[in-house]
Amino acid sequence: xxxxxxxxxxxxxxxxxxxxxxxxxxxxxxxxxxxxxxxxxxxxxxxxxxxxxxxxxxxxxxxxxxxxxxxxxxxxxxxxxxxxxxxxxxxxxxxxxxxxxxxxxxxxxxxxxxxxxxxxxxxxxxxxxxxxxxxxxxxxxxxxxxxxxxxxxxxxxxxxxxxxxxxxxxxxxxxxxxxxxxxxxxxxxxxxxxxxxxxxxxxxxxxxxxxxxxxxxxxxxxxxxxxxxxxxxxxxxxxxxxxxxxxxxxxxxxxxxxxxxxxxxxxxxxxxxxxxxxxxxxxxxxxxxxxxxxxxxxxxxxxxxxxxxxxxxxxxxxxxxxxxxxxxxxxxxxxxxxxxxxxxxxxxxxxxxxxxxxxxxxxxxxxxxxxxxxxxxxxxxxxxxxxxxxxxxxxxxxxxxxxxxxxxxxxxxxxxxxxxxxxxxxxxxxxxxxxxxxxxxxxxxxxxxxxxxxxxxxxxxxxxxxxxxxxxxxxxxxxxxxxxxxxxxxxxxxxxxxxxxxxxxxxxxxxxxxxxxxxxxxxxxxx
Length: 527
What we know:
Number of strands: 23
Number of domains: 3
Number of helices: 16
CATH topology of the largest domain: Sulfite Reductase Hemoprotein, domain 1
Largest sheet: 6 strands, mixed
CATH architecture of the largest domain: 2-Layer Sandwich
């Protein structure tokens, strides 16, 4: 029997595949595989194997994703098991999606990053044990070595540890709980201050026990806080932290104790996080010759090679140029995206838009690496659109055709905002709650919920670090051209004033910025 036909005749449990790191894409029988990293690093041998897999089974490129893992899109379902087998030859396995414990996110230890004041890898090695926990809740854990929080853990992780000092001594952590993006974004709440590494492990154990005992299906940290209250959650999570749990660390193969004196972390621009197989092989070889033989996966999708001597910088620049890559040392920060057009939940094509934005930045001559822009195809915000000077989100506005609605309530089940009510067995959408994810449109089998408008929302003023804040939506349902027009106006102001958008908002306020960059009546304003 032809294997492709066999796939069509077999019922596929898409949700079970997601939990195992195999995520459905729009094209029939096409999936992406999410590859787990150890301490968010992979060695050159592993990178070359991934490059070979993308050539053999996919379309010759992969994504450096916001989850600090590589994702290979466009793999046929029939090839997934073979891909997993090939990955195992270099000691790699898949990460998860859906309600499971995710890959532990971590930045650099204090032997590599001059800003780090903790050995974040040491704590991550201990927390790695929780990756095997069978709990059916989405749990993301992050460890940042300093308050800069380069992994944006305060909003990307349910539990985030941020390195701090105590009485001049290093090696302690503040802990934030509840961080998440998506349709109901939430900045993590500080739940503990200046705890030790051993106490941090106990804190995580308490979180898992709280989730097992009192968590409801689908709940995350932010849900527990809203339902049970900050003080109750804080009390439970801080119980018996001095009790040292018997935890054996899972060694990180790329960890090194060598202090990176007179070395740099080489960052490589990868627009939309996309890297071809040939580019990946070149990056792997550069890491072997000029670094320590491994590459770090950063949140913003730019491959990083630590331990590079600056004397080799121009040689590396020339080698990267041959394969169409650049060192990330001019322009703005790396433009990051989600799957965009080939994700099953996407409402917009983010990659083409971001590449136009990149050209716009070049035309404007903007040279400020602190400026951040990214895009997400839907309000799930996998492209971290909320944490940028300018962020884009693909949105679709639903409208109910009452004559076709049969009251099946499928739309209620998929709405994470609880923005749909049934009135006389007819779906009614609450516009104040709706965030235009489009899932009610996609799930309706009777075409009773239709797409009224579609386009991009623009968010401004997002910021990571010690003063983490979420961007605010200022306009919705814009075309690509309108989005670029607004972006250009905003970037011109940013360039002229020499500040980021969050600082600009502090100075002139959101309404003041709207007046400056949304002058046309054609745009849909957001209150």
